[in-house]
């Protein structure tokens, strides 16, 4: 990821799943599972999924030390 791309992602209010993956370090497939499990709220525009960056920050704080691959351990935002 280039510095310009990283700066652009950090200033956006809503991110695609790919951008959210880069922003958080959580893999795309794991993010999609968390969305399916309704642990992360999203905005849907047709097939496009957007996640607010502030929601991702809250999610990471609440789930620090939790196993994100275990549906029952993850705290929803």
The end-to-end span amounts to 28 Å
Radius of gyration, in Å, reads: 12 Å
Mean pLDDT: 93
What kind of sheet is the major sheet?
Answer: 3 strands, antiparallel
What is the 3D form? globular
By CATH, the topology is Molybdopterin biosynthesis moea protein, domain 2
Strand segment tally: 3
Structural category:
alpha+beta
Low-confidence stretches: none
Number of helices: 4
What is the class in the CATH system? Alpha Beta
- Domain count: the total is 1
Please bin the fraction of helical residues: 40-55%
User: What is the CATH-assigned architecture?
Assistant: Alpha-Beta Complex
Strand order of the largest sheet: 1-3-2
Order of helices and strands: HEHHEEH
- Beta-strand portion reads 5-15%
Oligomer: single chain
GO molecular function: DNA binding
Protein name: Helix-turn-helix domain-containing protein
InterPro entries: DNA-bd_dom_put_sf, HTH_17, SinI_DNA-bd, Tn1545/Tn916_Xis
Domain Helix-turn-helix: 15-63
């Amino acid at each position: 990821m280039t510095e310009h791309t990283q700066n652009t992602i950090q200033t956006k209010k809503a991110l695609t799943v790919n951008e959210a993956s880069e922003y958080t370090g959580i893999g795309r497939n794991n993010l999609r599972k968390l969305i399916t499990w309704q642990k992360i709220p999203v905005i849907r525009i047709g097939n496009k999924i957007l996640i607010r960056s502030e929601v991702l920050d809250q999610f990471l704080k609440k789930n620090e030390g939790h196993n994100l691959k275990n549906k029952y351990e993850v705290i929803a935002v």
